[in-house]
Amino acid sequence: MLRLLVSRCARGPRARRVARPPAGLGDHCRSASHQTSDAPLNQPPNSQFVARPVGVCSMMRLPVQTSPEGLDAAFVGVPLDIGTSNRPGARFGPRRIREESVMLRTINPSTGALPFQSLMVADLGDVNVNLYNLQDSCRLIQESYQKIVAAGCVPLTLGGDHTITYPILQAMAKKHGPVGLLHVDAHMDTADKALGEKIYHGTPFRRCVDEGLLDCKRVVQIGIRGSSMTLDPCRYSRSQGFRVVLAEDCWLKSLVPLMAEVRQQMGGKPIYISFDIDGLDPAYAPGTGTPEIAGLTPSQALEIIRGCQGLNVVGCDLVEVSPPYDPFGNTALLAANLLFEMLCVLPKVRVV
Prior knowledge:
Layout: H1 2-6, E1 73-78, H2 93-100, E2 113-114, E3 121-126, H3 134-150, E4 154-159, H4 165-176, E5 179-184, H5 204-210, E6 214-224, H6 235-239, E7 243-246, H7 256-266, E8 270-276, H8 298-306, E9 312-319, H9 330-344, E10 350-351
């Protein structure tokens, strides 16, 4: 019966390479060892024919592949949370996001995006981080992403705490040079150090500036809010040329006009999207380490990401999902949907 069901597994209409199918979905699909140039694109299985609980826990139940070769884009987990300053648990974020992604389908009817008819996409699994050494983890992340980027694959990252964006941007800059940044967050993450340490989830973009990884005139931070130790917490960001959009300036309004301005500012040069789930109000995303009240709404999050359509997006991440504080999985479900939206705005995705 399983073989009969999976024989109807949806495949894309355009012929290209294929990656290893998730375990449990049958053997009718060719494995990575039998990749051919005339094989179809990977497609998440259709829940009308393959039950949602069937298969290994991959993002959108996509094939799992150990190499980025032959992929246009890939989901990558970075299960690291030893850079967290408050509530831990983001190391379990990638796994929980994958679990909730079972509800996602292949087409975005709101935007007309057809990601799985445009790109070869797979799940590359997780970076094997060192949970006893944050600096070594950063090295491992950077090395892993250098290989992904060198293969021409756009990474969509499941975090993990926000520390991970620093080594990812190190890898990005090696290929693209300084990149623009769209950063959605309750916090600017531009602190210099804490407890004597210069690397943790509150410092990634300070370190990126120090190393020249960012095109500072093309950095936009949206959703910033919360109490502070100073009267001007935005001073550093603005002194570097960042545009800072406070959460108060987003209340009760559409962010479509803002994103029109952001698109003009970013131009056609490479841009990276880094989305901290605590940019959203904890009423919608309680499962995170450092929640702040009065944040963005899910609809505003969609406006931000969809507003990146047409930009030269070279990578994305969704960080700070902490499943121990997300008992019903709503935060992880929201995260999975936002990652799908990021996939839909990648440059090669066809829109009808």
